[in-house]
Amino acid sequence: MYTQVLKAQWLAARLPVVLLTVLGFALPLLTVTYGGSLANAPTDRVAQWLYASQKIGVLIPGLALLVGLLLGIGAWAADHAGKHVYALSLPVPRPMYVLLRFAAGATLLAAPVAALGLGSLIAVLSVKLPSGIHAYPLQLTVRFALASLVCYAIFFAISIATRRAALAVLGVICGVVLADILISSLDLQAGAVVTGWLFNVLTTWPGPLAILMGRWALFDV
Amino acid sequence: MSHAIETHDLGYRAGKHFEIRDLTLRVREGSIYGFLGPNGSGKTTTIRLLLGMLRPIKGAISVLGRKVPEEMARIMAQTGYVPERPHLYPYLTLEQAIRFHAAFYDGFDLPYAGELRRGFGLPLAQKLSHLSKGEMGKLHMLLVLAQRPELLVLDEPTDGLDPVVRRDVLSALLDFCSQGSATVFISSHLVHELERICDWVGVLDDGKLVVELPMQSFKNGIKRIRVAHAPSLVGDTPFVLLQRETAGLEQVWVVRGWQPPMVQWFEGAGAAVREIVDLDLEEGFVELLRSSRTPTS
User: Fold this and answer.
1) Hey, which residues 209-228 in chain B have their CB within 8 Å of chain A?
2) pLDDT in tens, A102-155
3) Cβ of B88 under 8 Å from any chain A Cβ?
4) Calpha distance B257→B222 (Å, rounded)
5) Is B35 strand, coil or helix?
6) C-beta atoms of A92 and B100 within 8 A
7) A77 touches chain B (CB under 8 A)
């Protein structure tokens, strides 16, 4: 059963998976290319490497978010289109079917994660770093894998509901942000309090998005 | 006699205007049960209730001797379901769809699926999104028959198909039924189609079961009778009076459950039977619905 669900999910999501895999492979190599070009400058080479690594590094949690979003929503797209009638007619308990879908999607995460790991390894091996700078390819890959899994789980959970419920969740989020912008534009004391508080709750441990925060750098001191 | 499907006092409501009311169904094991009703009468809703896709607000359902919805996974392992509209994943090829479906059923008969596919002329490498409506109908039938189920629940399986495809699909169904003792529950508004294949019939109208009886009784028992000197008050009759209309000096009665000796009842009431006309199934069905909507006094 799992193999067939995985196969079906792959066929449905292969284009985004391939694109995300290419991106995952390219980002570490981009760090090296960018860092290398900056390091030719006559200024401090260590600082230039750190600057390049941090500059490209911020894209990596963004990629994790994108991986989670596309695979999480993609996991249910076909069933939503058929109003879940086919899935409900299959002889498996509903929690089991959800688990099968989740596991298949989580397996597909392996492709961009492996690509990022491979890209990081090649990037590290292809460059001679100045003393004081260290490479963290394994740590970056593991962190990317966890961040992708967390984002995937969040979007999987949101999109498991009906389209109306998913839109309601997104609507509430947009509403809060808009209300906050409005309050800020009216120059009230409460400006940015709501979104600021919400952002803190989500991104500070134990918030679900805490893993996306902090420094994401292939090269660091 | 045990029943493959049994509902008791089933109730369901969707919105303000639609409800299933006190639905009690009994589908005998091994029968081919035609579930007739006009569009919007609640056939699909009833089927979704039977298969645990919707939750009733009252009543009890048992399918293949198991409780719905508690034992749904076991019930579905022995049930083949063809929905009203195709819901298979359109990005799969025919071969992938068969393999996907087969993975969920222990007894899925792949050689039989291959045989049916060749018989239906379905191209193995074709994507489902490129299949015609007829081909999709055949594929659905192929998938459920190759499951070798004990119960087949078919929701308008031939609706919108051309006569050739319809014949292919129904022939495959009848072939399958002749090989074993599967129960078939088939909904349709195409009366003539069910007339050929069903041995029991239930008629649903506006969420209410109007009648449930053997097909033979349904076919033979509905008559249009021209009556002279008809009594103004009917009282107890040995038949069910569905409709009565005045036509000149006479009246035309439509009755159900007619037997020839019942002529004596008219004679006893001082009336005379001028003519008795057999109604075909479709006419009987229409009269039945008319009478259920405007009850005769």
Assistant:
1) none
2) 999 999 999 999 999 999 999 888 888 777 788 889 999 999 999 999 999 998
3) yes
4) 6
5) strand
6) no
7) no
Distance CA A84, CA B97 (A): 16
How many Cβ pairs within 8 Å bridge chains A and B?
56
Angle (CA) B175 B187 B94, round 5°: 60
Q: How far is B96 from chain A (nearest CA, A)?
A: 8
Look up residue A130 and give its DSSP letter.
Answer: P
CA distances from A60 to A46, A90, A125, A205 (A): 21, 38, 20, 19
- Answer whether B53 touches A (CB < 8 Å): yes
CB contact under 8 A, A85 and B91: no
Which residues have CB under 8 Å from B105's CB, separation 6+? Answer: A91, B77, B147
Q: Which residues of B219-230 are buried (b: 16+ CB within 10 A; e: fewer)?
A: eebbbbbbbeeb
The confidence score (pLDDT) of residue B110 equals 94
Higher pLDDT residue, A86 or B190? A86
Other Cβ atoms within 10 Å of A175 Cβ, number:
10
CA angle A154, A100, B112 (to 5 degrees): 150
B104: chain A residues, CB-CB within 8 Å = 1, 4, 90-92
Q: Are A89 and B96 inside 8 Å of each other by CB? A: no
Predicted TM-score of the model (pTM): 0.83
C-beta of residue B210 within 8 angstroms of C-beta of residue B203: yes
pLDDT, tens digit, for every residue of B87-110?
889 999 999 999 999 999 998 999
Question: Phi, psi at residue B173, to the nearest 5°?
Answer: -65, -45
Instruction: Find residue B20's DSSP bridge partners.
Output: B12
Q: Which chain B residues are Cβ-neighbours of A17 within 8 angstroms?
A: none
Q: In chain B, where does DSSP find H-type helix?
A: 43-50, 72-77, 94-102, 110-120, 133-146, 163-179, 191-197, 215-221, 263-268, 281-293
The CA radius of gyration of chain A, in Å to the nearest whole number, is 21
Distance CA B137, CA B162 (A): 11
Residue A191 has pLDDT above 60, yes or no: no
Question: Across the interface, which of B76, B90, B91 has its CB nearest the CB of A90?
Answer: B76
Q: Which two tokens stand for residue B181?
A: 């003792």
Q: Which of B76-111 are b and which e, b meaning 16 or more Cβ less than 10 Å from the residue's Cβ?
A: bbbbbbbbbebbbbbbbbbebbbbbbbbbbeebeee
Residues of A in contact with B92 (CB under 8 A): 8, 11
